[in-house]
Amino acid sequence: MSSGRQAAGGPRWTQTWLSGARSAGADLGYPGQRLGLPEEGPTAIAGYGRRLVALFIDWGACLVVSSFLTRALELAPQDRSLLTLALFGLQSLVLTATIGMTLGKRLCGIRIVRLDGRPIGPLWALVRTLLLLAVVPALLWDRDHRGLHDRAANTAVVNI
Length: 160
Description:
Subcellular location: Cell membrane
Distance between the termini: 58 Å
Oligomer: single chain
Largest sheet: 2 strands, antiparallel
Strand content: 5-15%
InterPro entries: Pra-immunoreactive, RDD, UCP021697
Main location: membrane
Protein name: RDD domain containing protein
Organism: Thermomonospora curvata (strain ATCC 19995 / DSM 43183 / JCM 3096 / KCTC 9072 / NBRC 15933 / NCIMB 10081 / Henssen B9)
Structural class: mainly alpha
């Protein structure tokens, strides 16, 4: 009689599921391989860490500016959060549409590119920014490290 356990401890299906697809023998390749991007170097998919640091830099810069504006315009302190969000959205929209990177992305050595090689432009930058501001789409990533906001705009964040 077998209890469904292997010698390694726990049912096989649980170990595979908890360990991910690679432990089941699936070859998923490296992030960006399906998109035709290199594994390392310029134009390779940027890692989570640099993207997160860039986000904190961008948000921090907007927070500093909104703090000054809140005092200068004599706004209520609770309005600072909304102003920070608006500045972050405006910064993301304008800089992504024009140069393909924000201040934080530039400092972290990453940029946003369209996968078809065309410029991002204002329409796709708007789509990407609105989904980024909604937060949840940006948290749902695929194996190429692209959030739903990147997938909707057909973009990827790559190394410079």
